[in-house]
Automatic annotation (TrEMBL):
Keyword Signal: no
Subcellular location(s) per record: Cytoplasm
Organism per entry: Streptomyces albiaxialis
InterPro entries named among the record's database cross-references: Adenosylhomocyst_ase-like_sf, Adenosylhomocysteinase-like, Ado_hCys_hydrolase_NAD-bd, NAD(P)-bd_dom_sf, S-Ado-L-homoCys_hydrolase_CS
Cofactor needs: NAD(+)
Positions bound to NAD(+): 206-208, 240, 269-274, 292, 327, 348-350, 396
Similarity comment: Belongs to the adenosylhomocysteinase family.
Cofactor note: Binds 1 NAD(+) per subunit.
Enzyme Commission designation: 3.13.2.1
Spans through the membrane: none
Protein name: Adenosylhomocysteinase
Catalytic function, reaction form: S-adenosyl-L-homocysteine + H2O = L-homocysteine + adenosine
Ranges for domain S-adenosyl-L-homocysteine hydrolase NAD binding: 240-402
Residues noted as binding substrate in the record, renumbered to the chain: 57, 143, 205, 235, 239
Length: 482
């Protein structure tokens, strides 16, 4: 690791490898590259200080360098302890013009396999801007809402004059957050309040982070405007679905190399992520079962040809379990006790509370063994073993390298456009949660057609009149579901 410098990554000598993969990724990310070209002169993010909390991968490196190309200054942390690609982090720390001996990149705080203390320290570093008026960013780019959460909790406790005692913590992670905020309150009782005062907005990447934003908006506690990037059509209907269709099997294969064909797989949740995961495993010849709580999604699953079941009814017959719900307590320790020998258990939802890892660890006599990083066997007292991927954290980023570049080009083009919107038009976005205007969503899709050889039909003016849309779009009403 590096010390004495304004970044922390695992190994700077990986930078050249990271740079080569960034180069390859740029060609696969036509949306981001087109945005760089379009805004090269205008520099719409000049003056922006963007704190990013998002998986530090090769694709994210292309996003970061796009923000910089548009004029932004950037500080970055990963949004998961296992998701950093160390060569991508090294390349970002070194920068295109630097060397490992003379790094000239951006302050990035991320490595694969952080502890929870390190994770929250990294988030704090990304949010702490030396030599600036408020000591903080004026924009946040978030994935899952942890950076936004730290600022909001900090402000809440500063208003109250103290943070709750660490003894009140509900779990390990909560304890770490309370420790951190008790410390900052001691150091500077206005740190987060000052910092929040200059934040123009946050753009949020994922379903789970968006839930948190709407909760704060409803509670009246949201401190700055937020762009729900997840619900751009070119994000959730592509990244969540086609991204997971690619990276779910990638994660399972790299972790276990088990033959998927012929196995019985259970996907918990049939939302956007669940749909991609189900297709992914069916594509490999698995027999796929689905659990759902929503009758609409359950009916979709049935019509797509999957059997809709309850976990209880099938728990002893399934070879591969995958949770995709964004909800908690989906697979409990008592369920895992009933599974087949060498059943594989993984989660692809944002947080690690879908699988009851604490309950599993608390089973008397259970033995955990590391096969390799992010792959563990848990052996029950009766000798039965299950295989848990990424300790219950999102397995496509823990066991593999997350979504491939082309799909992330859509998500990150949405992110970049959302950053430009909130940063350059604060008067249009009073504090609330927004989605991208549809013409921008359509623009992002348009930027990706050429690369796939897709040729769009142009609407004739009479046809446009007939269906009541402008020739240049938007083509659908806001309530259209795709
Ligand atoms: P979604 O809301 O479209 O789908 C979740 C589904 O789970 C819903 O249909 C819901 O009815 C169902 N569900 C909720 N509780 C359930 C229960 N107890 N049993 C069975 N089903 C239940 O959300 P989306 O977009 O599919 O995202 C799911 C999670 O994945 C979120 O945490 C999101 O942040 C995360 N995500 C992860 C990605 C990755 O690369 N690992 C990529 C995109 C999203």
């Amino acid at each position: 690791s590096t010390t004495g410098q304004d970044f922390k990554v695992a190994d700077l000598s990986l930078a050249a490898f990271g740079r080569k993969e960034i180069k390859l990724a740029e060609h696969e990310m036509p949306g981001l590259m087109a945005i760089r070209e379009e805004y090269a002169k205008e520099q719409p993010l000049a003056g922006a200080r963007v704190t990013g909390s998002l998986h530090m991968t090769v694709q994210t490196a292309v996003l970061i360098e796009t923000l910089v190309a548009l004029g932004a200054e950037v500080r970055w942390a990963s949004c998961n302890i296992f998701s950093t690609q160390d060569h991508a982090a090294a390349a970002i720390a070194v920068g295109p013009d630097g060397t490992p001996e003379n790094p000239k990149g951006i302050p990035v705080f991320a490595w694969k396999g952080e502890t929870l203390e390190e994770y929250w320290w990294c988030t704090e570093q990304a949010l702490t801007w030396p030599n600036t008026p408020t000591g903080g960013p004026n924009m946040i780019l978030d994935d899952g809402g942890d950076a936004t959460l730290l600022v909001h909790k900090g402000v809440e406790y500063e208003k109250a004059g103290k943070a709750p005692s660490v003894d009140t913590a509900e779990n390990d992670e909560h304890r770490v957050i309370l420790q951190l905020l008790n410390r900052t309150l001691g150091e500077n009782a206005q740190k987060w309040t000052q910092l929040a005062s200059e934040i123009r907005g946050v753009t949020e990447e994922t379903t789970t982070g968006v839930h948190r934003l709407y909760e704060m908006q409803q509670a009246g506690s949201l401190l700055f405007p937020a762009m729900n990037v997840n619900d751009a059509v070119t994000k959730s209907k592509f990244d969540n679905k086609y991204g997971c269709r690619h990276s779910l099997v990638d994660g399972i294969n790299r972790a276990t190399d088990v033959l998927i064909g012929g196995k019985t797989a259970l996907i918990c949740g049939y939302g956007d992520v669940g749909k991609g995961c189900a297709e992914s495993l069916r594509g490999q010849g698995a027999r796929v079962l689905i659990t759902e709580i929503d009758p609409i999604c359950a009916l979709q699953a049935a019509m797509d040809g999957y059997q809709v079941v309850t976990l209880d009814d099938v728990v002893d017959q399934v070879d591969i379990f995958v949770t995709t719900t964004g909800n908690k307590d989906i697979i409990m320790a008592s369920d895992m006790a009933k599974m087949k020998h060498q059943a594989i258990v993984g989660n692809i939802g944002h947080f690690d509370n879908e699988i009851d890892m604490a309950g599993l660890a608390a089973i008397p006599g259970i033995v955990k063994d590391e096969v390799k990083p992010q792959v563990h066997t848990w052996t029950f007292p009766d000798g039965k073993t299950i295989i848990v991927l990424s300790e219950g954290r999102l397995l496509n980023l823990g066991n593999a390298t997350g979504h491939p570049s082309f799909v992330m080009s859509n998500s990150f083009a949405d992110q970049t456009i959302a950053q430009i919107e909130l940063f350059t038009k604060p008067e249009s976005y009073p504090t609330d949660v927004y989605v991208l205007p549809k013409h921008l969503d359509e623009k992002v899709a348009r930027l990706h057609l050429d690369a796939l050889g897709a040729k769009l039909t142009t609407l004739r003016p009479e046809q446009a009149d007939y269906i009541g849309v402008p020739v240049e779009g938007p083509y659908k009403p806001d309530h259209y579901r795709y």
